[in-house]
Amino acid sequence: xxxxxxxxxxxxxxxxxxxxxxxxxxxxxxxxxxxxxxxxxxxxxxxxxxxxxxxxxxxxxxxxxxxxxxxxxxxxxxxxxxxxxxxxxxxxxxxxxxxxxxxxxxxxxxxxxxxxxxxxxxxxxxxxxxxxxxxxxxxxxxxxxxxxxxxxxxxxxxxxxxxxxxxxxxxxxxxxxxxxxxxxxxxxxxxxxxxxxxxxxxxxxxxxxxxxxxxxxxxxxxxxxxxxxxxxxxxxxxxxxxxxxxxxxxxxxxxxxxxxxxxxxxxxxxxxxxxxxxxxxxxxxxxxxxxxxxxxxx
Length: 298
Ligand SMILES: [Zn+2]
Description:
The structure is a single chain. The protein is of the alpha/beta class. The chain has 2 domains: 4-109 and 283-297, 2-Layer Sandwich (Nucleotidyltransferase, domain 5), CATH 3.30.420; 122-278, ATPase, nucleotide binding domain (Nucleotidyltransferase, domain 5, 2-Layer Sandwich), CATH 3.30.420.40. Helices cover 36% and strands 24% of the residues. It is built from 9 helices and 13 strands. The chain has a 5-stranded mixed beta sheet. The radius of gyration is 19 Å and the shape is globular. The two termini are 18 Å apart. Bound molecules: zinc ion. This is ROK family protein. It comes from Leptospira terpstrae serovar Hualin str. LT 11-33 = ATCC 700639.
């Protein structure tokens, strides 16, 4: 039996699914997670959510937002659940179910899922960029996730695009995320138009209506993102750059400019081989389960 459990710990819920090695979902469970949970009550819900799926599984993969320590398998803190601190996810699940357990941040899991089951699954080396509330990234080379020392690598959203630029959520000025993400678009729009927008859809609707401020913000943001990706391509030399996440729904509004700026600024020798495109919308649980399939390969 080569089935794996993927667990996606998100804002407000835990989703666990059992997958066949083909990526087919065989069974799943979902539990809401109230905001005010402490470690003990959270772990109880986590175990209860996973338990019904364990009979036919060869391992458990877990993904959650960071910061985390993937080696010790600890969620250091959670932005959505303030009561959680140094949560020993890996040890607790291993003890409870006697199965191997892997734990990575959700952007890395999404990258791995995309590399194993997405449109570009037949390429050898993938840089996956998540465009949503923020900007995340993951790098998968020959089926193996590069997650850095302790699992916090490829934080492409927090690489600098504009020295001394707009203030980012991380506390530093000029991150690419301050220029190209839902948070960035809304923040820049509020600054320049003195008006708060509700969400990314409203922002992109303004772009479609040729609102000059929204258009300018998107066009500068696209340049900022393109150069962050240029840097990453020169550092990592991926075969393909794959964009995933909510903002890719509006790819027709910026994709052409983004690709042409990347292509016109990277080394020609890389350009000849590099593929750039939009990925699928795979579930976070499938990404987490890919941790098991990937580790089985080693
Ligand atoms: Zn930042």
